[in-house]
Amino acid sequence: MRLVAYALTAAVLLLFAGTANAATLFDPALRFRMLPTEHFTIYFHKGEERLAGRLAVIAEETWRILERPLGVMPPRRTQVVLADQTELANGYATPLPFDTIVIYTVSPSGSEFVFGDWLRLAFTHEFTHIVHLDRSEGWARVVRSVFGRTPFAFPNIFLPTWQIEGLATYEESAITGDGRLHAGDFRAIVGEAARLHELEPLDRVNGGLTDWPGGGAAYAYGLGFHEYLVERFGAERLAVLAGATARRLPYTASRAFQRVYGQSLGSLWRQYEGSLGGGAAASPPETNVNVTRVTRQGFSVSGPRFDRFTCQGCPPEILYSASNPDGFPALYRVALDGSAPRRVTTRYLGSTTASGRGVVYFDQMEVRRNGGVYSDLYALSRADGRVRQLTSEARLLHPDLSPDGETLVCVQNRPGQRDLVLVRLKPDTTEALKPHTTEALKPDATGNAARRKPRPADAIRTLISEPDTQFDLPKWSPDGRTVAVERHRSGAMPEIVLVDVATKSLRVIAADAGTRFVMPAWRPDGGAIVAAVAPGEATFNDATIVTGDLRAYLPAFAPHHVAAVRVAGGASAGDSTVGRTFLLGGTSAGGGVVDFGSRAFSLLRGFANNTFAGSHVALVNAEYRWPVARPQRGAGTWPIFVHSIHGALFTDAGHAWTRTFRADAIKTSAGAQLSADIIAGYFAPFTATVGAAWGHDGSGVTAGRVTAYFRIGKAF
Fold this sequence. Notes:
This protein is 19% helix and 36% strand. It is an alpha+beta fold. Among the domains are: 4-275, Orthogonal Bundle (Neutral Protease, domain 2); 543-712, Porin (Beta Barrel), CATH 2.40.160.50. The longest helix has 22 residues, at 49-70. It is globular, with a radius of gyration of 29 Å. It starts with a helix and ends with a strand.
């Protein structure tokens, strides 16, 4: 997601380029707004309000969590830009000239990554870069204090690409539990190379590789090497290594491995290669005698579809896309008679084709206003080979043609989601789909969506739209009544659903909490659907999480006075990539006594939310509660009823740690609060609380102070 060269180039642009040139980093049609948080300034444009609000929470949580694995407090302020200006799921980060993250908000398809929340995964990866690269130790700290944020004061930006990207790719999985560490298809890049005894040597994954796997080598091998280091030496050494390389002169950081691990980088790399297995001879893959290889272009070959309308008596033909270093990406045709593939037309990063009798429809991307990269639909005439653009900045992908040849089903990108839509290719005979009742949206010169009367070819109707949900790779049923499509909701695995085109009703046919169901296709008779399946148990590692929560409510010195005591704790052991990081600090309402979540034992008043984190946590909360008044009154027929008011004095003590428990590092707090038990809407009870607390950190990392707070819900 981030290359050193890109970071340095971006830094030079931001430092020395004029305002007009720098602005081309983003589509000038976008109008940005700003959302500040404690440690971040988030820039977002119209339509991204939900995403920005969600990212604000994710960013602050990640800020707290990343302090432990990288052994340093993250930067106090980072600029984050959310830009919905491309169909390519990506992002980048740079510490120069100031800490900046850019995330393109479109999500990848469910077949590309293992993720429940793409925004969290992408941000975790990029913010790992910021914490890792914005570090200057020893001589570099002196240079930075004298000359400011000059590139040479940031030694870690001069590390090999595999080391920078490998660490971030590892942490994206270790922190979120998702990501490429758990994606069997991504791990196969190295796994297949090991099986064939064709592992890439260290010098070829440093950066700049064109041969397969190209730029992906730095991520795949870097991830595998960091996983090997963690399994053998422990995750804590990664933080030590990051500090050691931050004090080395540029391009000399490899010697830090000897200091941290007691062995040279070359020796460790050879041992990593040896750990990947493989016998004296490469074991051939299982083959099927009925499988015939039809292309040998290498690199990326995608979207194969049988052409339904080849000439009579001609052998079957397949349309597909290919991208490699030998030429511009293109759409190809290959016959199944052994003849060589034939180039049909150029095609920039499209996915699938929809074959009609006289026209082949496909999607591809175009650069707009020197900043945006948007996908549109195109039609290739079989008669003369000319290509005609059907839509403009409609952001349509994955077209499939209905059996009657009159309607395309596609997906359409929007900020934070991808909708399922229909595109009419001919004038409608039904009122619901007449062109004059269906308007396409196209940004005008001010960046706002301007309505225009569309041509019949780009009359777009939304079939299904769900917030925070991505639809992908729709397929018409043979009878043209139903669409099978991949649906990926935020926080869940991809599933296959059927959509009735007439009623818009939706039915889930393949879903499981730990399994990816992707790329649906119909059996020719329409009686069944096949899909690619990746079982969760085939890729996820094991960890053990133990929690305990004991609570007692005892009568005190007067009627209705209560002494409430809670003793709780948790521990996570096993694979660090899927274990639990417990958070401590804040005034959040407590959950149930059975809770394995990261915030199960976070109630430590007097500190900001999630100030401390570790794989172990211990907590004691004690309160003396007494009634103040019991008004049991409302206001006429207003749906609000104040039942009772009560006060409490409290004290909290807790500690979160990973390696060693230190009694002198225990955090304590004390304070008072006033609460009201309220019934809203005539039936919904809740408790509202205001209070103040003074917190003290025994380790001295956080200064003691008095904080005021407001909370909905009871403490415990």
